[in-house]
Automatic annotation (TrEMBL):
CDD domains: CYP71_clan. This is Cytochrome P450. Keywords: Heme, Iron, Membrane, Metal-binding, Monooxygenase, Oxidoreductase, Transmembrane, Transmembrane helix. The chain crosses the membrane at residues 12-33, 81-104. Pfam families: p450.
Length: 554
């Protein structure tokens, strides 16, 4: 029998009224339960929360702003340990060295897992690479492999010839661009981000598969975009289609991992609706990955069939080779997932760091001059930088630390996930909580760093802070069980590349930016944060070209 609502023109059937009341009742119950839990558990403070959606709207309203900046604003209001719900996921953000230490040292084991977000299902091939893997035996096996074999300091040291060759290829690429540019200018404009991404992908490609992924073709492309530099010289741009595919793969993957909001990750009941189309994009992305990586892996399987039998010395092998020899149980999908870990985790972040450091030096010509003077004293102008020079470059090393402090390329780290309840400070954190470390805020904490927003490398002259995760006031690579396993590779690649570029070339900003202080220093939204506007710079050879070319030959 239809039910007529008083004062309403609509006719509501009994089942609709019943179901609506049931949903309202359930939502209210859930809300009451949350409040009860809050009262019982003494949760940390945070923004207002609503049934079902939690604080999702507070976060969504700030889309377009980097999450590290949003979290910093919230931390100023609620304190260094922030608690809120995103949908049905309890979430915390730590924004002080003390809280980061509590999370990454005291509660390290509890928070050593990762939440199961959609990117891990597709890009991690069922959460099977390190970056997405939940804690457990598979994760521990892979981390052990990274720490003791693939990314150990000794292995990275043995890869010096590879680094030298790739730095040499980058320098040659710039020189060729200069040579093919305007005869009078003796300079060319380079798109620093694009070139560094190619160079780092080549380094990681060689570490993984002994294969350069890019041909750094320096001849001017017809499709090269001319910049507002006034010199009319082309930007350096690799041309090959395969290379471009790899680059867009890394960019897309980075965007999918950290830049796309997916409601289904926070309210599982909505997952099937795929409201933002994230799952669909991820699903479409998988064949692209396989087209790029599977042939490389299968070629390795064929090549190493003999080595597997003979247990070839893994020191001589690239990463995929050593995995095939030592761990033949790993499937093609496992190997694709590991390749993604390194290609995506290691290339964009290191490229972003080179870009930020050069941008800061271009904004501070006095500091740029000081770095180059130091290079001239320590290395001289008769030879090129070698890795043994790096530890003697005291000011240069301060510049690197200051750049990683002020512009951490992964500003909120990757999300951690707790497997049980734990205590942080005076508060109880429920199990299955997602946690972010606001590295950006910690590295700029005014109680630790004087004049924290300024780029002042000198502060590290008399400071014992290092970037390896022992000092919780400086965490560019995070710390603990989930701390970046690529820290040694990253620093080795970053330092040799930057020192060589600064030694070999003079650097200036394009005439379109007459005042260096006007250089746009905003960061891009995403898990990796390079400059919002890619850095373009004019380079001129600083060392005699003959000397560089002669050295690169040997
Ligand atoms: C300047 C360059 C780099 C920076 C600033 C950086 C920073 C980070 C940070 C902050 C994390 C998250 C740690 C956490 O969740 O607590 C991370 C994770 C990771 N990084 Fe790096 N990274 C860099 C380069 C590299 C390189 C070169 C590689 C590999 C060749 C690499 C591989 C990884 C992997 C596999 C993870 C996931 C670790 C896990 O989940 O256990 N990174 N990195």
């Amino acid at each position: 029998m239809p039910l007529k609502l008083v004062g309403s023109t609509a006719e509501w059937s009994f089942p609709v009224v019943f179901l609506t009341s049931l949903v309202v009742l359930l939502l209210s119950l859930l809300f009451v339960l949350r409040i009860r839990r809050k009262l019982l558990m003494k949760l940390p403070p945070g923004p207002p929360t609503w049934p079902i959606v939690g604080s999702m709207f507070t976060i969504i309203r700030t889309r377009g702003r980097p999450s590290s900046r949003v979290f910093t604003t919230l931390a100023k209001r609620y304190g260094p340990l922030l608690f809120f719900w995103i949908g049905l996921r309890p979430t915390i953000v730590v924004s002080s060295a003390e809280m980061a230490m509590a999370l990454l040292r005291t509660c390290d084991r509890t928070f050593a897992s990762r939440p199961k977000f959609a990117p891990g299902k597709y890009l991690g091939y069922g959460y099977s690479n390190v970056v997405f893997a939940p804690s457990g035996p598979h994760f521990r096996l892979l981390r052990k492999l990274y720490a003791s074999e693939l990314l150990s300091p000794a292995k990275i040291e043995r890869m010096l010839p590879l680094r030298m060759e790739e730095v040499g290829a980058t320098i040659r690429c710039i020189l060729e661009s200069v040579a093919s540019a305007d005869e009078q200018a003796k300079a060319c404009v380079i798109d620093v981000r694009s070139l560094m991404l190619s160079a780092n992908l080549n380094i990681i490609g060689r570490m993984l598969f002994s294969k350069r992924l890019f041909d750094l073709d320096t001849k001017p492309d017809t499709d090269v975009h001319h910049t507002a530099d006034g010199l009319g010289v082309p930007a350096v741009s690799p041309r090959r289609k395969a290379a471009e595919e790899f680059k867009s793969f890394v960019k897309e993957a980075t965007k999918l991992i950290g830049g796309s909001f997916n409601a289904g990750d926070y309210i599982p009941a909505l997952r099937w609706l795929d409201l933002q189309g994230v799952e669909r994009t991820l699903r479409q992305f998988q064949p692209k990955i396989e087209r790029l990586l599977l042939p490389l892996i299968q070629e390795h399987r064929r090549r190493h069939a003999f080595a597997i039998k003979e247990k070839e010395n893994s020191d001589q092998l690239d990463f995929i080779g050593s995995l095939l020899v030592g761990h033949s149980e790993l499937s093609d999908n496992n190997l694709i997932a590991i390749s993604i870990d390194l290609l995506v985790g290691g290339s964009d972040s290191t490229a972003a760091s080179v870009e930020w450091t050069l941008a800061e030096l271009l904004r501070h010509p006095d500091l740029l001059q000081k770095v180059q003077e130091e290079l001239d004293i320590v290395v001289g102008r008769q030879k090129m930088v070698t890795e043994s020079d790096i530890s003697k470059l005291l000011f240069f090393n301060c510049v690197i630390k200051e750049s990683l402090r002020l512009h951490p390329p992964v500003p909120t780290g990757a999300p951690h996930f707790s497997t049980s309840a734990c205590t942080l400070g005076d508060y109880t954190i429920p199990p299955h909580t997602t946690a972010y470390v606001n590295i950006h805020a910690i590295n700029r904490d005014p109680t630790i760093w004087a004049d924290p927003e300024a780029f002042r490398p000198h502060r590290f002259f008399d400071s014992c802070f290092n970037v390896y995760g022992q000092d919780f006031g400086l965490l560019p690579f995070s710390s603990g069980r989930r701390g970046c396993p690529g820290v040694h590779a990253a620093l080795a690649n970053l330092k040799l590349m930057l020192a060589s570029l600064l030694h070999s070339f003079s650097w200036t900003l394009p005439p379109s930016i007459p005042n260096p202080k006007d250089l746009d220093m905003r960061e891009r939204v995403g898990i990796v944060s390079p400059k919002l506007t890619p850095l373009q710079a004019i380079v001129r050879p600083r060392l005699p070209t003959d000397l560089i070319l002669e050295t690169l030959k040997t």
